[in-house]
Amino acid sequence: MCFFNTRIAVLFLVVFQLLFIADHSYGQQNLSARDLQNINVDELSDDQIRNFIKQAEKSGYSEQELEMAARAKGMKADQIAKLRERVNQLSMQQDSAMAEADNKEVIEDADDDHDVSLAKIKEQTLKAAQEDSVLRDSNRVYGFNLFNTKNLTFEPSINIPTPKNYQLGAGDELVIDIWGASQQNYRQTISREGTINIVGIGPVYVNGLNVDQASNRIINRLSSIYSGLKTSGGRAANTYAQVSLGRVRSIKVSLVGEVETPGTYTLSSLSTVFNALYVSGGPSENGSFRNIEVWRENKKIAVLDVYDFLVQGDQQNNIRLQDQDIIRIRPYDQRVRIEGEVKREGFFEMKKGETVEDLLEFAGGFSDRAYTNRVKIKRNTGKERRMLDILMADARNLILDNGDVVYVDPILDRFENRVEIVGAVFREGDFELSEGMTVKGLIDKADGLRGDAYLHRAAIYRTRDDFTIEVLPIDLTKIMNGESEDIELVREDLIRVSSIYELRDKFSVSISGDVHKEGDFPYMENLTLKDFILQAGGFKESASIERIEVARRVRNADPTSAKSKIAEVYHFDVDENLSLSDKDSEFVLSPFDHVYVRRAPGYEVQHNVEIEGEVLYPGRYAIQDKDERISDLLARSGGLTASAYPRGARLERKLANTGTVDIDLHKIMEKPKGDEDLILMEGDVLKIPLKLQTVKVKGEVLFPRSVRYEENRSFKNYVSQVGGFNKQALRRKTYVVYANGEVARTRNYLLFKDYPKVERGAEIIVPEKPERRKMTTQEALGLGTGFASLGMVIVTLINMLN
Predict the structure, then answer these.
(1) 747 Cβ partners below 8 Å, 6+ apart?
(2) Pick the residue with more confidence: 150 or 90?
(3) Separation between Cα atoms, residue 520 and residue 511, nearest integer Å
(4) How far is residue 545's CA from residue 571's CA, in Å, rounded to a whole number?
(5) Residue 727 buriedness (CB in 10 A; 0-12 / 13-18 / 19+)
(6) Helix 46-56 crosses helix 77-100 at what angle (to 10 degrees)?
(7) Tens of pLDDT, residues 564-574
(8) What's the Cα-to-Cα distance from 322 to each of 154, 205, 579, 674, 766, rounded to whole Å?
């Protein structure tokens, strides 16, 4: 039985059967449509659901129609979900059973449907074999992946023109089209007797003919009833006919010997040897890829070498199969392995007489790092192993034996004629060491020394035979002028030419203050103050152009003087056009000078504050004066509304993360500019709430919540409203947070507690008792020992006094 492509489709087809199979009893449940709303899927057996699936496959209804019908008949959503789960389980069981089914049964099902793909058959026959460890190890044999990968399939194409040498046989379908004066279409399948039967003509024998031969014979016979197919008495033909191949027949081919899954397979009559090998999984662990025989009517008609296809692309012996052909795979003759610097490492099957050169061809040749002068071969003897180290010129014709392992070493990671120069030359890098090359010759190859080269001392780093490094100092001035003998270089010499800038601090100048680009800048010779200010982007609007300072390092300060000067400071006045006086314009900056551009006195940017809540004009306001206060902001915003709650007003100060500042707006309004009336700062937010009507109780009480505020209600009364204190409550530390941010704590007087007053919008906080750590056994013993010792001391003192 074939399952639907999706299990959801199967589900709704089962629902279809439940809907429309009326008055049929299955066990204890009647599944008529009128009882569908009361169906219980749990009472259905697996066999019943399998039977529904078989019948549902023939229904032809769409998924949408089935779902709508199920809902219309009252089937419940939870029952549909249960049904889906049952169908999924049975489908998974069916999938597993199909994968484990006997290959012969699978092929018989495929024989009934010629459209079953070879890839599906292969998946079923090789599923268990691919999990075998021996098969995984044989993946390393060259050619194995050709027949054991999902990325490559050898399915015969049915969309190609019929091959000219294709012989018709029983099961092939012929399509005969007639057009012109007469029109007709025939689709005839060749019978077991090798004939097709056309009405009005009778049987036409076509077995063993190719399509062209069969076409001539059939059209010749058709001309007896379609006279227009032939010219007659000078009359041209007015009817035309064409014979083509429709569906092709199936053939049975047997694979024997060292095959991964031997047996008889049903294939398309267009299949080749590769198609059959792919379906069967190809040669087994011991099977040969180089000696695959094709037998027909007890005669060997072809021998296929898979390596011809893999290496040369040659399919000359990949012949088209016929019914009852036998493919025989012999055991391999010999295998060798190649490792190292080749393009394709691994095991390769070799024929008798094949050489190292043949093996290299199979391996794709040497890699780009291969040492091609010599190869190494490990070979088995009758008693032990031996090592062969052979020049490549001799090894190419060396015949390989079974079990040989060929090694191709990499070239050495060194140069036989390299020298290097780095530093203050125009072309750093590696150069060829020519015969007699000297220091001056290498510098010339590097296009000479740069202007910043330090000529009085350079170095040659030379590698000795024991791989230690020695340094040879040289004077480039004398060598370049011919005053001293030039030095001849050897392989792997490295010359380093230092720059004068590497031998001193990195010169820079700095600028800070009210310019657009503060920071450090590279020092340049003859850099003037005017040029440097331009390089820094010019003055900001806030800059004071009448007070610019330049601080310069003092190199020779007197370390013994307490008043020793540590910096020279120069003052300048610059106009908006960066013009200096004649004297100042000559001022040139030195390395590490620092320029300071001061801010103009009295320059201020706008500072903003906000007022939120119950005022007439809430929003953002700019501070007008340095001493502007809360009362001023309240007046500018139009004053309080009728529903404002001044006692709950609070000031949030964002500057330096201060947070909430306690204020008393009543006192501020009664006495503006007083101590309570704070001066405003950038970012302040004054919040004035509505008249609050609740009190929140939090912490260690039985039912923390907000309760309605009542005038003159006490602290303890509010706690009672939420169930009172619980066992973990630390009563003596309770406190109240008022709406304006103020905090009042409970005060304790001997056995009495003075709880704070509760106001509108307040929060009562009841903290938790700290967890007390239990005394350990060792601590208890230590404490007891201490008391005992103290008691003994007291007794001793009493006795002494007596």
Answers:
(1) 753, 754
(2) 90
(3) 7
(4) 11
(5) exposed
(6) 90
(7) 777 889 888 77
(8) 17, 19, 103, 114, 95
